[in-house]
């Protein structure tokens, strides 16, 4: 039996996705000694790689894209409509959103593009456009409002992962709202048999010397007159230091951007890697392993062969993918056994297996889905609440998707909530006593 | 009419005497043996406790494909590599009879266990692949030789 290595810290962050990383960085910036425990990449690595903060719930379907509100105003409007949403639960602290976004942009500066006042409208591989408050540098030129001229969707000849004609035809719909005219072209970059390459294999192949330049030259040869920017499949490299987007754009002589990705998402993998690099740069100790025997802040907790003791914890364990909320008969929070709420304030602590599935999911596609927004109930300081509505433990905060009330994977606020709650929880945990 | 009467009496003999007697004295084996004879050839063998444990562990897979980043499948032909190892999960979870379709991918696994640390939901991928691989290769027919 190997005796565990004992580590003492002021703040322990459980979870290494967007929320956990931002919390650890914020606590570190506030001067605390921070340890972060992570098991594996989570839902952040499965994201499109861009950061949606809040779709404006009052925006009309035909409204010009240019009329879009900034993230804070859109989040305020969302909070007014949805009292269970973390943006509403946070109350006045929602006003820290611009600071939190600026903090995240600074922490991830090599990867993320500087934000604008308004959201960028970025195209997905299905030909829809979604508002993103933050995006990667490789995605920024695809902003439908920033394209000067026509937008060209370039498919790779033989690559089965992207239907450029479908994307271009679908993006034409946004023309009436101020989007650019859109065309599809097919380019043959001479990269060999692409049809059966998995996304990460294609990304790695483009990192090789000459490959990105060949793709850029092929794009240049295929460009129609009046082109303002080119959209390509989200496979422009895995390591930002390989500078694949820059090399492709340089050889193409035009701005080149990636589409937003479906899973497995290479931009999502890059985002996760950037979070890990930021943790290393900030001096946060990262412990790999699943946590065991957690009883609460102040008591030692085991993760792999390490035993960590910290007076204040930030729980950023994610939702169903990350394992922060588990469905085992009932919805449970496995780390500390905290009560879980489903949407609309309804307790989910009944036997789900004995209930018709329809009771936690709605038939309406756009309506609320209690199952998908299940998570911890928190107060305005992000302290998880027990069954009687009081803070469950001294020095305990929660951040990200483990906090209930938002459908983090589908309502367009997932990473925005992760950044805001991570920022607030990390700062609160760094202060002695956890108070303000 | 003689032909008809003859035919009916033959049928009566078969139905009332010969068939019941044969059923009575035929050696049919146990229910398990009969089940195996009928279904194992189609890949639908009985579920062992180990199968069940593996199935439960694999049920946490959300088919996100993140494990693919740590999986080279270098020995596989492109068509198999494109399917990826998690094709085995998808095929097997739909029906045990689909497992032979993933045999080529399972066979190409180098056993490096690079996948385990990449799984967001904590599926013990390497252990499951080892089990499925043994199952797929054991149940496979010997290769058909042509010419």
In short:
Chain A is an alpha/beta fold. Chain A has helices spanning 18-29, 71-81, 86-89, 97-107, 137-140, 164-171, 199-207, 211-222, 244-252, 266-282, 414-430, and strands at 5-14, 34-38, 120-123, 129-132, 150-156, 182-187, 227-232, 255-258, 285-288, 291-292, 301-303, 306-315, 326-328, 330-332, 340-341, 375-376, 396-398. Chain A folds into two domains: 5-48 and 269-430, FAD/NAD(P)-binding domain, CATH 3.50.50; 125-259, Rossmann fold, CATH 3.40.50.
Structure characterization notes:
- The complex is a heterodimer of chains A (436) and B (147).
- Chain A contains eleven helices and 17 strands.
- With 436 residues, chain A is α/β, with parallel strands linked by helices.
- Chain A has two domains: 206 residues, FAD/NAD(P)-binding domain, CATH 3.50.50; 135 residues, Rossmann fold.
- In chain A, strands 1, 2, 9, 10, 11, 12 and 17 form a seven-stranded mixed sheet that branches.
- In chain A, a hairpin with a 1-residue loop joins strand 13 and strand 14.
- In chain A, helix 1 runs parallel beside helix 11 and helix 8 packs parallel to helix 9.
- The longest helix of chain A is centred in the middle third of the chain and has 17 residues.
- Chain A is globular.
- The model of chain A has no long low-confidence stretch (mean pLDDT 90).
- Chain B contains seven helices and no strands.
- In chain B, helix 3 crosses helix 7.
- Chain B has 147 residues and is mostly helical.
- The longest helix of chain B is centred in the N-terminal third of the chain and has 24 residues.
- Chain B has a domain of 94 residues.
- At the A-B interface, loops of A face helix 4 of B.
């Amino acid at each position: 039996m190997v005796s565990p290595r004992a580590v003492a810290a002021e703040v322990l962050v459980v979870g290494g996705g967007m929320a956990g990383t931002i919390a650890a960085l914020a606590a570190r910036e506030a001067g605390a000694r921070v340890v972060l425990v992570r098991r594996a990449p989570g839902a952040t690595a499965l994201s499109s790689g861009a950061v949606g903060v809040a779709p404006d719930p009052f925006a009309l379907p035909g409204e010009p894209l240019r009329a879009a509100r900034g993230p804070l105003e859109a989040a305020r409007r969302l909070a007014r409509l949805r009292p269970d949403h973390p943006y509403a639960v946070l109350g006045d602290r929602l006003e820290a959103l611009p600071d939190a976004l600026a903090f995240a942009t600074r922490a991830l500066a090599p990867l993320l593009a500087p934000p604008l006042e308004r959201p960028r409208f970025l195209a997905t591989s299905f030909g829809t456009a979604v508002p993103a408050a933050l995006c990667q540098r490789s995605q920024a030129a695809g902003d439908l409002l920033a394209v000067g001229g026509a937008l060209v969707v370039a498919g790779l000849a033989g690559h089965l992962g992207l239907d450029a004609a479908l994307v271009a035809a679908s993006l034409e719909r946004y023309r009436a709202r101020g989007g650019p005219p859109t065309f599809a072209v097919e380019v043959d970059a001479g990269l060999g048999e692409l049809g059966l390459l998995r996304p990460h294999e294609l990304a790695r192949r483009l990192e090789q010397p000459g490959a990105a330049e060949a793709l850029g030259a092929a794009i240049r040869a295929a460009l129609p007159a009046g082109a303002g920017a080119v959209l390509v499949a989200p496979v422009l490299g895995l390591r930002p230091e390989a500078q694949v987007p820059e090399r492709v754009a340089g050889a193409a002589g035009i701005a080149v951007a990636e589409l937003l990705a479906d899973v497995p998402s290479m931009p999502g993998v890059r985002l996760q890697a950037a979070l890990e690099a930021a943790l290393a740069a900030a001096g946060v100790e990262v412990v790999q392993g699943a946590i065991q025997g957690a009883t609460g802040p102040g008591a030692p907790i085991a993760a792999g062969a390490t035993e960590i003791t910290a007076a204040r914890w930030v729980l950023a364990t994610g939702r169903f993918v990350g394992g922060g909320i588990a469905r085992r008969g009932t919805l449970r929070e496995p780390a500390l056994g905290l009560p879980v709420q489903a949407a609309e304030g309804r307790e989910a602590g009944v036997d789900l297996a004995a209930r018709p599935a329809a009771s936690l999911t709605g038939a309406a596609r756009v309506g609320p889905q209690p199952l998908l927004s299940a998570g911890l109930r928190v107060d305005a300081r992000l302290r998880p609440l027990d069954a009687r509505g009081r803070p469950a433990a001294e020095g305990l905060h929660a951040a990200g998707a483990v906090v209930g009330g938002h459908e983090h994977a589908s309502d367009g606020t997932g990473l925005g909530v992760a950044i805001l709650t991570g920022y607030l929880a990390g700062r609160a945990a760094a202060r002695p006593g956890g108070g303000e | 009419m003689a032909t008809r009467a003859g035919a009916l009496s033959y049928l009566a003999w078969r139905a009332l005497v010969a068939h019941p007697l044969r059923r009575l004295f035929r050696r049919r084996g146990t229910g398990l043996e009969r089940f195996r004879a009928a279904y194992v050839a189609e890949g639908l063998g009985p579920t062992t406790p180990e199968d069940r444990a593996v199935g439960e562990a694999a049920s946490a897979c959300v088919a996100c494909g993140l494990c693919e980043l740590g999986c080279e499948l270098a020995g596989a032909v492109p068509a198999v590599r494109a399917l990826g190892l998690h094709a085995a999960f998808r095929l097997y979870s739909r029906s045990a009879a689909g497992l032979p379709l993933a045999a080529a991918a399972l066979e190409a696994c180098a056993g490096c266990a690079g996948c385990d640390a990449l799984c967001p939901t904590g599926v013990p991928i390497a252990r499951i692949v080892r089990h499925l691989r043994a199952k797929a290769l054991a149940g496979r027919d010997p290769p058909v030789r042509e010419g």
